[in-house]
Design goal:
The complex is a heterodimer of chains A (about 240) and B (about 525).
Chain A (H helix, E strand, L loop, with lengths): L10 H10 L10 H13 L7 H17 L25 E8 L2 E7 L2 H8 L8 E10 L5 E8 L5 E5 L5 E10 L5 E6 L3 E2 L4 H4 L1 H6 L1 H8 L13 H13 L2
Antiparallel strand pairs in A: 1-2, 2-5, 3-4, 3-6, 6-7, 6-8
Helix pairs in contact in A: 1-2
Chain B lengths: L4 E8 L16 H23 L6 E5 L1 H7 L2 H27 L5 H21 L5 H9 L3 E6 L13 H19 L5 E3 L9 H7 L4 E4 L2 H4 L13 E2 L5 E4 L2 H8 L18 H4 L2 H4 L31 H26 L8 E7 L10 H14 L5 E3 L1 H8 L29 H19 L5 H17 L3 H8 L3 H23 L5 H10 L16
Parallel strand pairs in B: 1-2, 1-8, 1-9, 2-3, 3-4, 4-5, 5-7
Antiparallel strand pairs in B: 6-7
Classes of the chains: A alpha+beta (about 240), B alpha/beta (about 525).
């Protein structure tokens, strides 16, 4: 937070503070007089401070007083009853956010009860946690999956999504010492759609009108291309295959 | 010969920053700089065009948080104080430059005059409410005004929370209605953030069109006929106007855009940083924190520290050149597309309003020149607003599903979801879930509990603003952004914790209501998923 130097306050602000501090004749004082009067008023509160230190401390007290002059000394978030944010929450859940068609971000939390179930009351059970990413190809309905091992302290992970044109969900799973696997929580699905022109780049290359209206519009005359990995791939396909 | 249309859309938005508990607050300057350097000069430019009977049409989205701040008595008073300080500094600068740096005198006078003009316009012309200026230009048919999400949330990252998406859109529409007296037709998608299906909520709230990122067409699962050169309609009938990358880049490109011209004013050289501390101290922040004052005297010059003094005459010549070049490019592109398109192209340009005037000092002059030169040209481009275009050509639009996209780095959500800001979503999503829970458990409360729950809804919405993760990503005012997310969520938890105990923390509530004056008629039941 920024505290204010008295010299930087406008005359209106100084008058307001003088009024708050109940300075006599504050309406009649000019800017310099207001500053002097306010410094004097606050300076009197520092009488017991050694003169060598007075300037510094005086300024600190002055700034604090100025900052608080409207009576709202405490920030809202410093009031009684306002607690720090917890690092995690007491439920078992996993969320999946689509960052781009190649990456998703997962975060999760595990409740104390679930944690006890997985790692035992003493926390020593040799169980392990992993993420099971389930991919469903949108066109064929084919379902694939792969696992990612995570530590018990982990609460988030960036997940690579291997294919566009698939939907993905992720299970937060655990494996006990016998190798039994169970899901603790499942995320909602995220979907990635294949672009028509990705699958029909030949058509884009063969048809000048399509090329001009769809692809060329995303490249400046200086050769700057719109910032997007899929479009860069498409550009490479076009370069290799046709141009 | 094809007759191109140009849809110019500006997004005027700032996050809600209001700290009456401090006599001056650094981040409130974002608003004051934008009013001084962008919004008031834009209004003056529009009014000059109206006065000279130059035909023009633009679309401006004014965010609910910005509208709230622009009409807040506390911030208006502080803006006047800000102007007073700027005028005082300008007067000192004219004296100093006359004696010491005569090469800067012209610009010192220019800034001083602009500050005085701003004061006159703000006090006398608009009587403290510059939104009246935009409203008048809408009434005269020169502007289309649009709305955006309540707190400018980046919506794709809240896709799993339909109540939050709905609240952002509904309050965006409501706020517009309250401010401008009618419903908006257009909705600026914050950061051009679109995900398939978002149009359903927009349609539900009566929205006819929104804008999208350039790549939303090429990446569509459908075969798009006109690329970014025509708007499309989503399967539910709501129109999407994709930004035209090439035309937009004439301004937008960091490498070759017009604002990079060596004769234009250098944004980053400011007397707030250049002049001795004892001179500049009254106009910067405590403790001796150097900030921009707006008094900037150097030209971009090139990639060198050895800048040359800014010359307004040279810059104005380049403004005219760049306006001419822009119109030339528009016509040249239209000509090139003649064989490829069987309809006239529409070039949609979307920018932050604050780019013009604040970041690109000459940007407002450039817009003016574009309209003036176009009016003088034999062959004119049609400047259209999306609604006017749709009124004429809605039936000609191709039905297309735009692709998930944004205008951020990489074209998706990477800016708002990376290592610097991903931590926040765990807490914001939880707050939304808990807000839904509160709205179900305590539906239709009255009196103090109603106010308490309404404040909880405000805190959730404020935590969702796209500005905070952007600032964290961009590493600018990270401490403030982090604190804002943190504070809103902690404050939300005050309500959640108390309501679970059937209690109300009145001290907190009164202070919170006093600070967060936005969405005064919010109804927390908006978060009830059963509604």
């Amino acid at each position: 937070m920024i505290l204010i130097n008295i010299d930087s306050l406008s005359t209106t602000e100084l008058q307001y503070i003088a009024q708050q501090e109940r300075l006599e004749d504050w309406q009649t004082l000019d800017r310099e007089e207001l500053i002097d009067a306010l410094e004097e008023a606050f300076g009197e509160q520092d009488d017991e401070v050694y003169s060598a230190q007075k300037g510094k401390i005086h300024r600190n007290r002055f700034c604090n007083s100025l900052t608080d002059y409207r009576g709202d000394k405490q920030n809202l978030s410093d009031l009684p009853g306002v607690e720090p944010l917890p690092e995690t929450y007491l439920d078992t859940s996993i969320h999946l956010l689509l960052r781009d068609p190649q990456w998703a971000y997962a975060y999760w939390s595990i409740s104390p009860a679930s944690r006890q179930m997985v790692f035992g009351e003493d926390g020593q059970a040799p169980s392990s946690l992993f993420l099971r990413v389930q991919e469903t190809r949108i066109e064929s309905g084919e379902v694939l999956s792969f696992d990612i091992s995570v530590d018990r302290e982990d609460t988030q992970w960036n997940i690579n999504l291997p294919n566009m044109g698939s939907s993905y969900l992720v299970d937060l799973c655990w494996r006990d010492r016998k190798g039994n696997e169970m899901s603790l929580a499942q995320s909602k699905r995220v979907e990635t759609y294949p672009a028509y022109w990705q699958k029909h780049s030949g058509e884009l290359a063969d048809n000048y009108a399509s090329f001009l209206s769809n692809f060329a519009s995303l490249v400046t005359k200086e050769g700057e291309i719109v910032d997007n990995p899929v479009i860069r791939d498409l550009a490479q396909q076009l370069c290799k295959g046709v141009l | 010969m094809s007759n191109p249309s140009v849809a110019f859309i500006l997004n005027a938005h700032l996050p809600f920053v209001r700290h009456p508990e401090y006599p001056r607050f650094l981040e409130e300057d974002w608003l004051f700089e934008s009013i001084s350097e962008s919004y008031l000069p834009l209004l003056r430019m529009f009014n000059r065009l109206v006065h000279d009977k130059i035909q023009f049409k633009m679309t401006i989205s004014l965010s609910p948080t910005l509208c709230c701040m622009l009409t807040d008595p506390v911030l208006k008073e502080r803006f006047l104080e800000y102007l007073e300080r700027h005028i005082e500094l300008g007067e000192k600068e004219v004296v100093r430059c006359t004696k010491e740096q005569p090469e800067f005198l012209e610009m010192a006078r220019f800034y001083l005059d602009q500050a005085r003009e701003n004061l006159n316009d703000f006090q006398d012309r608009y009587r403290g409410n510059i939104l009246e200026g935009f409203k008048a230009l809408e009434n005269s048919g020169h502007l289309e005004l649009a709305t955006t999400a309540a707190t400018h949330a980046y919506l794709p990252l809240y896709k799993d929370y339909p109540t939050a998406i709905n609240a952002q859109i509904e309050l965006g529409v409501q706020s517009f209605l309250t401010t401008f007296g009618h419903l908006p037709k257009g909705f600026w998608l914050p950061e051009c953030g679109y995900y398939p299906g978002l149009e359903e909520s927009l349609k539900y709230h009566g929205i006819s069109w929104f804008q999208t990122a350039s790549q939303s067409m090429l990446l569509s699962p459908d075969k798009v006929e006109y690329g970014t050169y025509r708007p499309v309609q989503c399967p539910n009938g709501v129109a999407a106007f994709p930004r035209d990358f090439q035309t937009t880049s004439l301004v937008w490109s960091n490498a070759s855009g017009y604002p990079t011209d060596r004769n234009y004013r250098e944004f980053y050289r400011d007397i707030g940083y250049d002049l001795p501390m004892e001179y500049i101290k009254p106009y910067i922040h405590e403790p001796s924190l150097r900030v921009f004052t707006g008094y900037k005297y150097w030209a971009i010059t090139g990639q060198t520290d050895q800048k040359v003094p800014y010359r307004r005459d040279l810059a104005q010549k380049r403004v005219a050149d760049h306006a001419k070049n822009f119109l030339y490019n528009v016509h040249k592109k239209a000509k090139t597309l003649e064989g490829a398109l069987d309809k006239n192209p529409v070039f949609t340009l979307g920018y932050d309003a604050e780019l013009f005037g604040h970041w690109w000092f000459e940007g407002i002059d450039w817009i003016e020149q574009v309209f003036r030169q176009n009016a003088e040209n034999e062959q004119q481009a049609s400047f259209v607003s999306p609604s006017i275009f749709l009124a004429k050509e809605k039936d000609t639009l191709q039905t297309v599903r735009p692709a998930f996209s944004s205008w951020g780095q990489g074209g998706y959500s990477a800016v708002w979801l990376d290592g610097s800001n991903a931590w926040a979503y765990r807490h914001i999503h939880k707050a939304i879930e808990r807000m839904e829970e509160l709205a179900v458990r305590f539906n239709d409360q009255i009196s103090l509990k109603q106010r308490f729950l309404n404040q909880a809804a405000r805190e959730v919405l404020l935590s969702m603003a796209s500005d905070w993760p952007f600032i964290l990503f961009n590493k600018s005012s990270t401490e403030y952004a982090q604190k804002r997310i943190d504070d809103h969520l902690k404050n939300f938890n005050v309500v959640y914790g108390n309501m679970c105990k059937n209690a109300v923390n009145t001290e907190w509530l009164v202070k919170a209501e006093k600070r967060d004056i936005l969405f005064s008629d919010i109804d927390y039941n908006i978060f009830n998923p059963e509604r």
